[in-house]
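INTERNAL AUDIT FORM
Audit reference: QA-55
Scope: verify that the stored structure record matches its stored sequence.
Auditor: D.O.
Record contents follow.
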Amino acid sequence: MNNLIVLYHNLKRFIKYGLICLCVTLLIGWGQTYLPRQFALGTEPPQILSQQPIVNINTLVQQGQRYYKNGQFTEAVSLWQEAASQLADEGNQLQQARVLSYLALAFQQLGKWQEAKDAIALSFNQLQSLPDSPDKSLILAQVLNNQGHLQLSLGNAADALKTWEKVHRLYTRLGDETGSIGSLINQAQAQQSLGQLREAFKTLTLATMRLQRQPDSLLKFTAWSHLGELVRVVGNSNPSDPNWLSLKEFFQFNTLTNLEQSKSLLDKSLILAQSLDNTDAIAEAYFQLGNWANDTYHHQRSLYERTRPSLQKIQPVLDAVAQAGDYYQQAITLSNSSLISLQSQLNHLSVLFNTQYWLLKQRHWSNAQTWWQEKLVPQLPNLTQIQTKISTLPTSHTAIDCQIQFAQLLVTLNQIQQTVSQNQVQVPTIYRHSIWTRLDGLLTATFDKNKQIIQQSHELEDRRSEAYATGISGKLYESTQNLENALELTHQAIQISQSIQAWDIAYQWQWQLGRLRKAQGNIEGESGAIRSERTRSAIAAYQAAVNTLNTIRQDLATFNPDVRFSFRDEIEPIYRELIDLLLREETPSPQNLIQAREVLAQLQLAELENYLQEACASSTPALIDQIVDKHAPNTAVIYTILLDDRLEVILKLPQPAEFNEVTDDNCQHGRDAPWRVSTPWRSKINPSHPKSGTQVTLQHHRVKLSPRQVEERVDQLRTQLTNPQRTSRYTKAIQNTSQPIYNWLVSPFESQLKANGINTLVFVLDGALQTVPMAVLWDGNQYLIEKYAIALNREPQLLAPVPLSQQPLQTLAFGLSQVRSDFAPHQSFSPLANVEIELSQIPSDVKLLNQAFTSQALQTQINARPFSIVHFATHGQFSSNPNETFILAWDKRIKVNELSHYLKSREESLPDPIELLVLSACQTANGDNRATLGLAGIAVRAGARSTIATLWEVNDKSTTDFIRLLYQQLTNSTEPMSKAEAIQWVQKEFLKNENYKPPYYWAPFVLIGNWLSLFQG
């Protein structure tokens, strides 16, 4: 949860501090005229002279502006009150209204909300009695602007958005282009606060586009900086927006990833700030670049964790943290604002602490000790200094945010201490450090301060901050094993979150409640009944967290997966910890086995949606259980679940439909239902199979293995499978390496499979097991494919089979036999000489080869008529990074999200799904343990019932022969066989051929999705 709380803080700071920045720039450049230059709102109205000496009031306002920028809000209030009083004495209502609106800003920062409201109300009152004029309209726009800030600060983002829309109309009517643009930037802040990320992105890109015609200014800096931040946090939310397309062209973004686009924008904003010679803007740019480097660190961590163990390199992770530290230090050094300096210190310590804890969890003992000595020890004295700084901040949202983040720092430090205590022999330098004797004092002071900020949040009517402050206090108690206080505060945080429907907060505290109840259930000395009850309570809390995640899954899917919003750190553990509880007993109950399968399905869907950055949906989905029981009585499904200390395997055997009832009773659905895979189900377990009389329930098997042990075995097998050697020694090594995997997954169920007449196995695989073909598993005498047809699936729902016309299947085929050596997208790929032969042997209606196979041709042809089969004979790659998942066309690399865009247009005119998608020359990315996410992503994006693909790049000639034989079987309408059986038949034929007998040639072909016949109803 560490990263989510930091993300919350930085998102909130982006929304709020960005607005404060705009407000501060309102006051810059009061200069020799009476009215301030409105950089944020872009106006400098005609000079209106005061009856008193202008310098006195100008001086008061200028000094107030300097105090405000430095966080000295009380001093700013005093000066602006004096200025407003002088203006009242001389009867200058117009300018008094303006200064009163400034007072409202300062009162906000002091947490004096009633005074802020009164100042705004008095400002409007002064304007109301004045005759209409351009000057009045201008100042009215400025007062409304500040009212918008007040509304947003009070959590009324919807009201703030409406207010800024009024401001936009006023400036448009006044013909003030800069003011109009500034109001759009403010609207984007409100939209993001409301969770309207796509709308915020669209509004901000429009503002930035209009600014391209404007001279360089602080307003342009603000737009570039905020757009860079938004791209960093939420990715490219509107890929087809014409304004964004124009900006991408202007900024030369077309070939850059989201993080690269963000970095480019932030670099440009820094250069602009430097050209304007504005120190505060320069410091702000460095701060944003620090946040970017912080996200790069999390991105590098993710790359490290999904890389095969033999290829992992940790240095890029550490380099990203060092870069973040450099940027944050620049912000601290340059900033005139104590707030930017404090926030930079907090963010810097956050990434340092998180890295330290991560190194310890990864058991990189040497790196952990070096990191501690070189990076953390010099920073530890700053903890007390930061704590003092926060305690002296006036009551405000900024102070609350800073305290929340400081409390999270202590949570992480406490976690470091606990890990070090358990491994003191490996990290003696860290274990003996004096910080641990001071930690209790820091914690005590923080507990006291947290009580204050909870009360302050309540008084400020900021319920979101109150929920976070309460929850983080509970988490701090959790880290110190004070379960009673932790439970009390966690319950309060959940209640507050639910009362304001803040589901993005609620699930975090529901997860925390589950952890606390699980910890209670582990207390020794308690009776078995009490421990069982606490385990059930923990399961209920975890399930509530999962149900809440389902309600916000569309929002989660829109976040940029490369940033600190780390799915693996903050989302995935909730599902796995719930599964762990459900399967904790030596012999889990049937109900727990069913629920564990359900949670695994929800996890895999959430992971896929996070990968695609879009919620998945399909028409007429059906449960695998239903299809097996109704259409495939000879099919069994094997589920694998990787937990921290074991591998859980569940077997689902077929049973007649009259014994299988699917309901959704007592299940909590999300707001966006229906969705593709997340609906829970309950199945009645058939006690016996009528054909054989054997017991038919969900079967369960457990293997004591860590995920790392599984990864190492899979890594070894993958290396052997792709080895260029084709000798008998090579084949024997594959058999020896794959046999243990067979023993984990299939051997325990062999007797049940035989007793039930099973001839097809569908695997729902987890983790690294997805990267090797199940067909190659060796039982000691033969490969698994020699006994069973095999299919893969990622979830317990898929597109249901439907009766098809007996008319010949229509096939659309694309091929790339040549590559353009001078064309960057084609570089590193070799020609596929046999592709032309392959396409000639496919009974296709339309064939597009080489120059004819362009992205535009794909889009045109896919919409031309309802093709049943779409075949790609071209290079391609499946990766856990969407930007590295593509198929190669003549004119470009068509990435997974682009393919989605092409196929969505098909769905509008041709709603019937593609029956079969074939990717005959693609491969999973080398060394990527989660690369099949890309394969699943392409399959889902195609909207196909089934996908056939290769896990590695296969010999060109053997691929052609495999595809020829496969189509012969698939289209043999006289004796139709299932798609799984068709692949099995070809693979067994290859095993009979001495030239193709090694697994390298036949094993990589896998079937994903519906495994039944193309003609089956």
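Auditor finding: record pair retrieved intact. Residues 279-305 form the longest helix (27 residues).
Action required: none
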